[in-house]
Structure formats: structure tokens, C-alpha cells
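Researcher: Structure prediction, please.
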Amino acid sequence: MDISFDKSPKALRIYVTLVGVFIAALVLTNLIAGRFFTIGSWTLSSGVIAYPVTFLVTDLISEIYGRKRADLAVKVGFVASVFVTIVLLIALQTQIAEDSYVTEESFLNVFGLAPGIVFGSMCAYLTAQFVDVRIYEFWKKLTGGKYLWLRNNGSTILSQLLDTSIVVIVALIIYPLMDGITSTEPITWTLAWELIIGQYVFKALLALIDTPLMYLFTWRISKVIQDDVTAKAK
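Model: Predicted structure follows.
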């Protein structure tokens, strides 16, 4: 769908809002990914709480605004991730003050892995998000715009398997071996596979659960834009 922002100012405002939510979810995912939690026998990164939102948002943008604007959102998210990485790397190199409320050890424990997580996430993110957008468009064209549930779930479930594998291996195994920080250690391959499997299953379940939201938001946003276009044309 090619929506002219000139014909619908609300379309532009909604698009900017969606991109803002996308970037917030992406950055937050990277910052909290180093903390693990368990659900039953699953070991999961806290990043799984926010990250599925990024796929929902890019699918929404693809559905309503088209692939080019979805690709633009992915690129803007990449720039934001690069900016966060640079700031974190600079902060990690500064000399901490003696009266700092946060100790050096605490800061390293929380953010020492963050650049590696962001780097791993960027590698996974660029690969998975572009794959997600293209698979979504493929299913949309193949079905003639029908079966929204199929392209929403098909694109997200496949791309998240790729994303999860790349980010865990790069961020939690490869980067800690290269960062020179003694307080950050690579996880074992056993834990890595547990994280990959657990997170992927969890993300896949969330992808299935968010299908009603996809339908709801698509319907509501499309209606708001159409009403705005009609009102502006009068």
C-alpha cells in the first residue's frame, strides 16, 4: 500500500509512532538481554520480553505502509543501535569517579556485555528483520493479500530462528572472548543451545499470540488513515 503522507497527516504521525516504538523495543532488548530468567525448564534472556514487539511493528508497517517504509524503519533502528554501542563503549573507557554512586564493578556487570549484545543483535537484527520483511511480502503477494495470519506468523517464526541463533552465539560466546574485560565470560555451548531453543520456542509462541493484535492494529490504523484521507479530500 502506497500511502501519501501529504494526503493523510495522521498516517505520518502513526508511522513515526510505530518507528519510535520499534526503536525503543530494540534498544531496551539490547540493554536487558544479559539478564537471564527461567520459566519451568526454559532459560530465557530478558530481551525476549521486548524483542517480539519489533517483529510485530515491522509486520504492521509492511502491511499498512509497504516494504520500503518497513526497510526504512529497520535502517533507522540500525543507526540507533550503532549510536547506543558507541556511547556504551565510550562510557566503559572513562575513568570512574571515587564518589560515583554506581561502582565500576556494578557498571561492568550490567553493561560490560552490552556492546557485544548490541553488536550481536545488530548482526542478527539486520539479517532477521530484512528476511522478515521480504518473507512477509512474499506471502502477501503469493496469497493476493489474503490470510494475514499466515504471512504474519510465517515471516516472524522463520526470521526469529535465524535471529536467536546469531545473537546468542555472537553476543554471549564470541564477543566475551574478544572484549578484554575479565568480568565478562563466554557462556558454555550447552547453555547457548538451551537459550537458543528456549528463546525461539518462547518467541514463536508469542508470534502466534500476537496474531489477534496484528489484525486489530491493522484494521484500526487503516480505518484511521482512510477516514483522515476522506476528511482531507472534502
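Model: The first strand starts at residue 36 and ends at 39.
Researcher: Thanks, that helps.
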